Amino acid sequence: MSRETPKIPNATISRLVTYLRILESLEERGVNRTSSEQLAEEAQVTAFQVRKDLAYFGSYGTRGVGYTVQVLKRELRQILGLNRKWGLCIVGMGRLGQALADYPGFGETFELRAFFDVDPEKVGQRIRGIEVQHLNDLARTVAERHIEVGLVTVPAEAAQTVADQLVEAGVRGILNFAPVVLEVPKEVAVEYVDFLAGLSRLSFFILNPKWREEMMG
């Protein structure tokens, strides 16, 4: 009987991103080896949690020796799909869309390749050397420029329509900044960035610090 693939919690994926950032910082500081205890201290989790998170994907450390920073960093980048380029587009070039377009932290992994809007005053503008196109051109441009991820920064009432167009055009993932839950096929990944929800959680934990302590272990 074949073993079932374990279900990986969303929180584990989020922590892998944190571990990767820590490893990148350690490498910049000239550190060659680290341990689950050091990663745990900097990530504000337990060493057991670090080992458990990594164990979902394989065995990377040596008992009593720890992890080679460069090797573990490379493995995490591969697990997270960061060892390749991803073509991105932004739909909705209002203030948020333009702020994201100007964000310098996409790096070499995530490459902005197209911008879309329906506002005649925005269509035709050039941002980072890329012309803002009308939303009607989305399907053709996604195919021509090999875009796999769409960032949705339109108002809530337009988000589902935009998501439908992105899915039909063939994108594989959507990062949604609109405060609405999207309906997409199961093969399309969706992540949500909701500033108000984050502030609401923050206000709760400010008023209820014991809950935050329990969640952090």
From TrEMBL:
SUPFAM superfamilies: NAD(P)-binding Rossmann-fold domains, Winged helix' DNA-binding domain. One of its GO terms (molecular function) is DNA binding. It is found in: Cytoplasm. InterPro entries: CoA-bd (IPR003781), NAD(P)-bd_dom_sf (IPR036291), Rex_actinobacterial-type (IPR058236), Rex_DNA-bd_C_dom (IPR009718), Tscrpt_rep_Rex (IPR022876), WH-like_DNA-bd_sf (IPR036388), WH_DNA-bd_sf (IPR036390). One of its GO terms (biological process) is negative regulation of DNA-templated transcription. Residues 81-181 form the CoA-binding domain. Residues 18-57 bind DNA. Keywords: Cytoplasm, DNA-binding, NAD, Repressor, Transcription, Transcription regulation. GO terms for cellular component: cytoplasm. Homodimer. Belongs to the transcriptional regulatory Rex family. Modulates transcription in response to changes in cellular NADH/NAD(+) redox state. This is Redox-sensing transcriptional repressor Rex. It comes from Marinithermus hydrothermalis (strain DSM 14884 / JCM 11576 / T1). The gene is rex.
